[in-house]
Amino acid sequence: MRITRWVKHIKMKTKKHLYELENESIYILREVAAQFKKPVLLFSGGKDSIVMAHLARKAFYPSRIPFSFLHIDTGHNFPETITFRDELVNALGVDLIVRYVQDSIDQNKVQEESGKYASRNALQTVTLLDAIDEFGFDACLGGARRDEEKSRAKERIFSVRDDFGQWDYKNQRPEPFQLLNGRIQFGENVRAFPISNWTEEDIWTYILEEGLELPSVYFAHERKLVKRDGAYLAHSEFLNLVDTDEIENRTVRFRTVGDMTCTAAFISEADTVEKVLKENVASKHSERGARIDDKRSESALEERKKGGYF
Amino acid sequence: MELVRISTAGSVDDGKSTLIGRLLYDNNALTKEQEELVQKKTTEKGWDDLDLSVITDGLVAEREQGITIDVAHIYFSTNTRKFIIADSPGHVEYTRNMVTGASTAETSIILVDARKGLLEQSYRHFYISQLLRLNNVIFAVNKMDLVEYSEDRFLEIAIEIKQMVENLDARIDYSIVPVSSLKGDNVVHPSENMTWYGGSTLNQLLHAKKDIVTGQAPFRFDVQQVFHAQENGFIDYRGYAGRVISGNVSVGDRIVALQSGKESIITEIRRYTEVLKKAEAGDSISISLADEIDVSRGVVLARKEEQPEAQTSISSTVVWMDEKPAHTGVRLLLKSGSREFPVKLTEIDAKVDPMQANKRINVNAIEVNDITDVQLRLSQPGYFDAYSENKANGVFILIDPQTNHTVAVGFVKK
After folding, report:
1. Domain B220-306 in CATH: superfamily?
2. How far is B32 from chain A (nearest CA, A)?
3. Are B409 and B336 in contact (CB under 8 A)?
4. CATH class of the domain defined by B313-412
5. What are the extents of the domains in chain B?
6. Interchain pair B282, A23: CB under 8 A
7. DSSP 8-state secondary structure symbol assigned to residue A229
8. Is any Cβ of chain B less than 8 angstroms from the Cβ of A162?
9. Minimum CA–CA partner of A63 in chain B
10. Chain B residue with minimum CA distance to A199
11. What is the dihedral of CA A48, A54, A59, A62, to 10 degrees?
């Protein structure tokens, strides 16, 4: 099928359920704004948080988005993402708070990982918990989706965390009929996930349908890469190179955009949203397959979540 | 593409995880990573058949114990449907999770082990399905390969099921399908081992056309927030943001704000930059009115001629979800949509045993996982519909104001 016809076909096919998902997300965003005193939206500049920002604009229009955005910056970002982040935040007219993992390292609160697989991804937790304390946020809106990973599949829409950000997975509040109980004790906070029920395909189809802009790293571009364990990582000063690493120039795109040190690239020529969507659907690989940090063990993300990770 | 929400319940022994795995595998819906995991685990165990159970159970404790503790959500799509499966545990101590899993579903799949027939948890799962008034229940009689694909055995179980449905006087659409998740019979592919079965496969049943009954229920709108905006070129925009919880509404309709009883006319229905003529159940919109009447969060809008009663007390069925038992006289918070107010548990009528649904058991306290009929006195008028007539406006949760835990889900009887 030619790409334009295929896009038309996809748009027709998905319109109804995307509308249903959008209804649900708007309802959740409004509940967060109404039930909490000081919510914040965790914003990384990745595609899921861009969709979240768009949904927030829709939920409160014509009023302004009634909360700030918070970026926990590992310092190991794709530069393209940061430029994009700043432009989007300006256009939306929201306040952006940035807190740096580097500061947590400098204050000796966390220790930089060492060795070949060193990444700052897990270190973000401490910086996040400190930011929650500093500003007194009682709810953090996150763009996590249940289809991403096994432990995410168990997550509630309102996930209550204690003072230490811990996820008590055995004692989660039941959430029947999506009746959202956001009542918390002093010191507790809630992680709220409005796009829980979206899949990666839904996100891309929605981006296509709504005509949303994305940082350029999501589309095919030529880049200097490090080939390691069969995966391609972006070459950067943050990566600890070892002898077996091979440096190559290839045309690639990223399917998920996190810390530069742990996000693998896909060899791809897809340079538009349409082509990316089509290629993703055909590939059958899950996007978390590109997250090196989740490959540490079968329960890597679950362990991080219990400790207060997003 | 239709979004279809399904709930499954059962323990690992029923082959529930394998059934879901098979459904995904034969629909060609596993990711490459999941396929690799299946291959790896199958080789480790040295099985002849694929171990498809490994893709569902998520948490470390669940994998270690081989049980499902909490609801997991599984997503897959076919050409015409996008499915969300709420995969719930089946043991009695997890009844609350089962109710949660089933609460957003239209269809439930109840697993029956062909060797064992109906067990206590099959009765409980069916009871919950009909308490929640799901549109459709599918009994998957699994492990047919272990009873030599016997038609007689299947019929025995079918009779047991029919008996259970009749005993409950349940008016619910149900189907029974003999499957083997392990071998792949009648899940997606029609079975060659059970040519005596002429019915639909599980997958065909899941793809059957949905009976859409929206528009039947009266209009109810739950106000979440009030917007006053001067931005984006608006001068003094005033709108009530919320969700249509049932029925539909059009510009020009005369509505009444429940609680105050004040009336007005809808002048605008808005969704972001779009101005709509009408909206229906499920839509997240904002509504503007011709008059400045008192409307705030927690107010329900309805049409005057179909407004619900202003109850001061309600009789309802509650499923208790908290470890702490409840006694008569306890004060709780009721939450339904954005409505939230104190209530008092004035009477505990009777407990239901799903195994003997017609028998009422008198109790003094409500324990965790109990299904109990109760009376609640409301601190402000309720405006609920009976759950049997309008699900979305007939359901609530109860919150313990001391712990903030969600302690129960309730269904309004009247």
Report:
1. Translation factors (2.40.30.10)
2. 5
3. no
4. mainly beta
5. 2-206, 220-306, 313-412
6. yes
7. T
8. no
9. B229
10. B75
11. 160
